[in-house]
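Checklist before submission:
- one chain only
- standard amino acids only
- sequence pasted in full

Submission:
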Amino acid sequence: MTTTVDTPLLAVSDLRVDFAGPHGPVPAVRGVDLTLRRGETLGIVGESGSGKSVTALSVLGLLPKTAGVQGSVRLDGRELVGLPGKELAAIRGRRIAMVFQDPLSAFTPVYRIGDQIAEAVRIHQRVDRAAARRRAAELLDLVGIPAPERALDSFPHEFSGGMRQRAMIAMAIANDPDILLADEPTTALDVTIQAQVLDVLRTAQRETGAALVLVSHDLGVIAGMADRVAVMYAGRVVETAGVDELFAAPRHPYTLGLIGAVPRLDGLGGPLVPIPGAPAPMADLPPGCPFAARCPLAEERCSAAEPELAGGDGHLAACVRSAELAERRPAPADVYPVPALPAPSAAPEGRGDRGDRGDRGSRTPVLAVSGLGKTFPLLKGTVFKRRVGEVYAVDGVDLDLREGETLGLVGESGSGKSTTLFELLNLTAPETGRIELLGHDTAKLSRAEAHRLRARLQIVFQDPMASLDPRMPIGDIIAEPLRAQHAAREEIARRVPELLHQVGLDPDHAARYPHQFSGGQRQRVSIARALAVRPKLLVLDEPVSALDVSIQAGVLNLLQALKAELGLSYLFVSHDLSVIRHLADRVSVMYLGRTVEQGEVSAVFDRPRHPYTRALLSAVPLPDPAAERARDRILLAGDPPSPTERRTGCPFRTRCPVYARLTDPAARTRCEQERPALLGDTPAQDHQAACHYPES
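Returned file contents:
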């Protein structure tokens, strides 16, 4: 895959970037050295704040004026640092192009997509408007946007997230650049759309011959895309090597911790390996190795001086014990302390662990949902609004959760997951269908009964900063649900320190405010607040999606421990199937407002019966380069249909690879006209799929 050339296409030497701070310059990048050869893909990984994006942006001179840049960035031997703006503008888009993380912010919202791509062509090529427009249509077709001629006249807000990112890639390759810089290009996308975008990046690289710098926090994406990897921590590269060698035998404890913290789709559960602590503030880095305070292998010499990036055979690491790690090749659990999960308390007889769940029928039902439906009016007009249709947000959801279980709810954006949660949390009669929560039919609850039941059902939101009141100390935040349930003052004073200790926080910090905690700590505060009223069911809405993988591991371990200790049941909503595989006992897959497959997690993940589930699983990257390259991909065509139209037959057929292969007209007609029922594959019907032609 890599083309070997003696002279690097891009050479970054001793790059240093400082930002103006209230007490002087704050370092963001500290002496980064990188090389990139023609046709090569370099992956850059690390936690938030490690300097990945700043490094990528500094190559093109896209940093704000408050940034001071020192060092050398050479493109084919030409120095870019300090180059006048006019000369840099001639390089941007022509020699080096950027694919940004948020395409909606990168596109100008008041100009049509076609005009913006054509403008990028005309800036660097002497062509007329008609030729530039034809080139724009060719590029949209290349990146897989349907009806490219019509798409040229669309505005950015009319494209889905995946289509905007593909259009951004089309604009980046408009002038056949030598280098593509992709800064977290798939972060905000569903896993199926992520697979499409990564495939488009491969196509763009193949068509243009460009080298690619891929910045990502997702080790699975890096494993499948990169030739070489640079791991950054505290503004420096702490390890770099070929992708296979780095994943197989990391020589820096930080890299080892990142790999061990990732939940894997092919994993077997058990505790993850969290990296303790949090990165030191860049304005106040300690002497010596900046990772020493979090490193289980740290010794006295680590605090004396910062290790240089050194090593042989192209595998470099900034660690005084890198040679020892290269020889031992330890697993992450051999280096980092792995928390022991407590045995389940008050477990129903025969429940066992994940490997031996016993008889589900003997366990008390916590949540039973059948035929749930919810529509919203589609309105038109500004002053006088009129109803012109309906949005079928939820159109047939079935859920079954028992005591002590974790049920994972997965599906693409727009599949109806959040609407389903809101219907459950309302504790009122659903529009259609039935919800039975902890033995109570929500359609028959009085206001007083609903208030009492609400204490047994709590939620943890995706963004802890948005869900915690910034004006209240965390002690008051945690006490708020207790006050809502009219708990005694003495009980509140006793429970708050107890809850902080239970979620791994210092009770003495109860007087601190949310902004004084890290993201992972804020999520622990949210969990403590949810546990305050001793619920039986905890609804977790993407609780770790906004966290770095090292922080995510600690929160997931905490959730496993609390479930075992308190006998909780979880309804866990996530777009990350690796997290669901790691944490859940059962999984329910949603598509366009419907449940299309459900069952025990190992059965669904190892033997998926619905083609949508198979496509979801095939799109999840593995943090293992050899395994990732050997997998078969199922790329779904386009985006899900609009929920404003209730389709006859199977709603998945427009993207279904099984339907596309059907040659029997009767079989195709069945998919087009008959809505598939959710049926099981065994007499017990535990593993169910809503497909006319499920995988046997």
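Reviewer check: Confidence is low (pLDDT under 50) at residues 1-5, 346-357.
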